[in-house]
Design goal:
By secondary structure, the chain is α/β, with parallel strands linked by helices. The chain contains 5 helices and 12 strands. It has one domain: Rossmann fold (3-Layer(aba) Sandwich). The two termini are 24 Å apart.
Length: 194
């Protein structure tokens, strides 16, 4: 790697620091703008199954989308840390807010007594990240949970959309062979199709 390229760890540190500094009202306002852009896409409107995440550490708040999905009788899928399988997640259907509670690491996830979906094929997957670039590359927290999920368990036909604040889009993210790129990244100001 050349000396002027920034490492994933450095990008992660710098962007996470900015994101954690956001005030709750900024998170709400910017998340609403991002969700407005998402709701305008046919990929969202036509989706019968959507994989979402529950936000932590000032991630774009997608929780209002759960109500949208339930209202149109679409399946809302959330990841849950897999017990006994470090670094892996199960996919679980949730039908109401009461199905969600604080799980491993305090991250909201489907309750432990809800069964994992054996077969699922989301039309759309909304993916969190600390940083994205314009080619759809992504940096997460570094545990590889979403990388493993995307590489092994999400069908190739699923539209992958990263949700981020504009400052989370960087010029270039150093790639690894196992990285899965997003089809689009949505910020409060634009939709970046990759």
């Amino acid at each position: 790697m050349s000396e002027n390229k920034t490492s994933k760890d450095e990008i992660r540190r710098l962007i996470l620091e900015k994101r954690l500094a956001l005030e709750p009202k900024e998170v709400r306002a910017q998340s609403e703008k991002i969700l407005f852009r998402l709701r305008g896409l046919s990929a969202w409107r036509d989706a019968a199954q959507v994989l979402l995440y529950m936000p932590i550490k000032n991630e774009v708040d997608v929780s209002p989308l759960l109500k949208d999905l339930w209202a149109k009788d679409a399946r809302a899928l959330l990841p849950r840390i897999s017990p006994g399988r470090p670094g892996e997640m199960d996919i679980v259907r949730v039908d109401r807010y009461e199905d969600i509670r604080a799980g491993v690491y305090g991250i909201p996830e489907p309750k432990a007594d809800l069964p994992a979906e054996e077969t699922y094929a989301p039309d759309l997957a909304l993916i969190p990240g600390i940083a994205f670039d314009r080619s759809g590359a992504r940096i997460g927290f570094g545990g590889g949970y979403f990388d493993r999920l995307l590489a092994g368990r999400i069908p190739r036909k699923t539209v992958l959309i990263g949700l981020a604040y504009a400052f989370q889009v960087v010029e270039e993210i150093p790639g690894d062979p196992w990285d899965i790129r997003m089809h689009a990244v949505i910020t409060q100001g634009e939709i970046l199709w990759t």
